[in-house]
């Protein structure tokens, strides 16, 4: 191969008797593309006269360089077949021919970047919301159908999967639920205690904490925790299975993904959320009792004694009773979201995020509905 | 010529995966401009070997040299510079699913040649997509919207983006129809001849073996049992090689 010429010259135009001669020199490579562009632009090639490419000084030619040369001349109005080539090696000629033959149309830039106008974005989102609602309702319908099948044929129950999920959703969540609820109880009792001390009514802390935790805080905190913990796990797991075509495989084997995947998760979380909430109730009360003993001068024995008289059982049951509804909402949102993952990695992340946000919103909305529907609870 | 100029140098490579010796003393060298096929039964560590060549996996023993540099002794910066000089086509493409096809191909250019103006970068991207045999409208699509064969071509375009000296291909023609596969072989042949590309590819496609490869390396039970032109390798008396070439010709 000839030695590369000094880097600043890439090409020289000579006009002679039989037309123009473009002498190529130096390296025509990807790394020097910008210099080649400026070099070619300063030449002033006349498209009406015949053009000969002469490559005696050419160092290295790669596909990007060859493409740039051909594209530039093409834009000037000199297509590749009209060029006269001389001094190229057989390899360089093969490359030029390959590039000239394969060079396709230029893709419109806005389409490639995927930019959309405002109306398109609004329309697309509206369409997505409508489609999502419809798909969500369909999902609830399919789950109910699967539930009906299960009631008629209890043999469809996937015991193993259910117990795995019970362990994942329930057992392993106990430490974090206890810790969270204990801390909430501590903070609640502490702040309430500061207010109550102003009226020398320390013992009323027990009333406030008891009702506050049993009715609102424990169910809500546990449900939010479960939405973040189990909801995200459901979506990510089902989404990864979808990406891996495992769900298709389940269908192909003649099984129902609702029986195999959705119902065990639904049952697990519906069973476990009330139990975890009860654990949270207890932990919250213990936290409050500790603060009452240390800060407010209420011994633990009197705390629990008063709790028995001021906290009606119905309040506790009301708090526990709304959690299966939260749980069902979390499971349905999470599983549906997992099933609608597209076959790429980004989609799994997007859907997991959306599960957590949507199920927390759903839990808080349902809780508000309960609060409005039952403002007072008969003791 | 052999030692000083070789692009890839593998010496006494040993690999243990999950308590099992996948490679037990694999050695070979690739010279510039050579197209080499790596064949072997499933599970003989072909893909593992490719991953070791690009520094994704560390061998348990032995030495891997790329362009004369020992991979194990390179700093992160040196490895990064070295990575510009080779492209790897993963078996199932491994396109970035969050990016459109054109952006996938533009990514190596953007990362390694940030000085390149966007217009020129797009020009290169269009060319690579065309060279890989993709229609122009594929550029704006997401990888999830493409068929398996199209994904493979897009991945080839990405591997070719930086004009690499060394191209490593993991089963490039699997999942392609025979016509596209032969087209792929022809394209690669021209690129190899005109750009002095060195290619190492694993394959189960006997047509590619005959049509494309200058040389065949056979892995069997952790060792290289044959290394030479396809025609010579096919004549070897080894049992596995016999059945490999026989089954394929019967088909």
Q: For this structure, what is the CATH homologous superfamily of chain B?
A: P-loop containing nucleotide triphosphate hydrolases
Broad shape of chain A: elongated
- The mean pLDDT of chain A is 87
How are the strands of the biggest sheet of chain A laid out side by side? 1-2-3-4
Quaternary structure annotation: heterodimer
Task: Sum this structure up briefly.
The complex is a heterodimer of chains A (379) and B (251). In chain A, 70% of the residues lie in helices and 8% in strands.
Care to describe what's here?
The complex is a heterodimer of chains A (379) and B (251). Chain A has helices spanning 33-41, 63-76, 90-102, 109-113, 118-152, 159-169, 174-198, 204-243, 246-252, 257-295, 300-310, 313-321, 323-339, 345-373, and strands spanning 11-16, 19-28, 51-61, 84-86. Chain A is an alpha/beta fold and 379 residues long. Chain A has 2 domains: 11-102, 2-Layer Sandwich (Transcription Regulator spoIIAA), CATH 3.30.750.24; 159-373, no CATH class. A 4-stranded mixed sheet of chain A has the order 1-2-3-4, covered by helices on one side. Chain B has one domain (33-58, 85-250): 3-Layer(aba) Sandwich (Rossmann fold). The longest helix of chain B has 18 residues, at 178-195. Chain B is globular and about 55 Å long. In chain B, helix 4 (101-112) packs across helix 5 (118-131) and helix 5 (118-131) packs across helix 6. The interface between A and B is large, with 36 and 38 residues.
């Amino acid at each position: 191969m000839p030695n590369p010429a000094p880097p600043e010259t890439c090409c020289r135009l000579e006009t002679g008797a039989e037309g123009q001669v473009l002498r190529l020199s130096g390296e025509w490579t990807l790394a020097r593309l910008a210099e080649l562009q400026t070099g070619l632009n300063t030449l002033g090639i006349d498209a009406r006269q015949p053009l000969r490419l002469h490559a005696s000084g050419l160092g290295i030619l790669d596909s990007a360089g060859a493409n740039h040369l051909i594209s530039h001349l093409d834009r000037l109005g000199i297509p590749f077949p009209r060029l006269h080539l001389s001094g190229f090696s057989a390899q360089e000629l093969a490359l030029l021919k390959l590039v000239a033959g394969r060079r396709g149309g230029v893709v419109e830039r806005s389409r490639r970047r995927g930019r959309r106008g405002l109306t398109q974005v609004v329309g697309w989102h509206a369409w997505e919301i409508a489609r999502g609602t419809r798909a969500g309702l369909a999902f609830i319908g399919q789950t109910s159908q699967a539930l009906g099948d299960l009631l008629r044929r209890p043999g469809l129950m996937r015991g193993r999967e259910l117990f795995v999920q019970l362990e994942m959703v329930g057992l392993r969540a106990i430490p974090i639920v206890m810790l969270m609820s204990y801390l909430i109880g501590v903070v609640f009792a502490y702040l309430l205690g500061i207010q109550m001390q102003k009226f020398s009514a320390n013992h009323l802390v027990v009333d406030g904490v008891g009702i506050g935790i049993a009715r609102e805080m424990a169910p809500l905190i546990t449900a939010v925790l479960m939405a973040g913990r189990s909801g995200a796990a459901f979506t990510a797991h089902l989404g990864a299975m979808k990406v891996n075509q495992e769900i298709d495989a389940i269908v192909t084997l003649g099984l129902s993904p609702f029986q195999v995947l959705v119902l065990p998760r639904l049952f697990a979380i519906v069973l476990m959320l009330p139990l975890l909430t009860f654990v949270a109730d207890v932990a919250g009360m213990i936290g409050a009792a500790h603060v009452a003993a240390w800060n407010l001068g209420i011994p633990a024995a009197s705390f629990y004694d008063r709790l028995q008289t001021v906290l009606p059982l119905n309040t506790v049951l009301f708090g526990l009773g709304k959690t299966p509804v939260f749980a069902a909402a979390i499971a349905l949102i999470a599983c549906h979201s997992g099933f609608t993952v597209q076959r790429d990695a980004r989609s799994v992340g997007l859907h997991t995020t959306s599960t957590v946000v949507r199920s927390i919103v759903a839990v808080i909305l349902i809780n508000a509905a309960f609060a409005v529907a039952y403002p007072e609870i008969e003791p | 010529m052999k030692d000083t100029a070789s692009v890839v140098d593998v010496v006494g490579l040993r690999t243990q995966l999950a308590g099992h010796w996948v490679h037990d003393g694999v050695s070979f060298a690739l010279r510039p401009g050579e197209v080499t096929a790596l064949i072997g039964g499933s599970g003989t560590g072909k893909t593992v070997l490719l991953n070791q060549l690009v520094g994704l996996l560390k061998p348990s023993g032995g030495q891997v040299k790329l362009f004369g540099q020992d991979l194990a002794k390179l700093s992160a910066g040196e490895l990064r510079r070295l990575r510009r000089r080779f492209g790897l086509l993963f078996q199932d493409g491994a396109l970035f699913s969050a990016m459109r096809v054109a952006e996938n191909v533009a990514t190596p250019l953007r990362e390694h040649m940030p000085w390149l103006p966007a217009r020129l970068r797009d020009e290169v991207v269009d060319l690579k997509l065309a060279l890989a045999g993709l229609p122009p409208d594929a550029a704006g699509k997401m990888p999830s919207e493409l068929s398996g064969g199209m994904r493979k071509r897009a991945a080839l375009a990405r591997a070719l983006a930086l004009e690499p000296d060394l191209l490593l291909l993991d089963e490039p023609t699997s999942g392609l129809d025979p016509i596209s596969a032969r087209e792929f072989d022809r394209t690669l042949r021209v690129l190899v001849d005109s750009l002095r590309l060195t290619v190492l590819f694993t394959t189960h496609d006997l047509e590619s073996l005959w049509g494309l490869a200058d040389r065949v390396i056979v892995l069997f039970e952790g060792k290289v049992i044959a290394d030479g032109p396809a025609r010579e390798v096919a004549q070897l008396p080894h049992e596995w090689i016999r059945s490999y070439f026989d089954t394929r010709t019967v088909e």
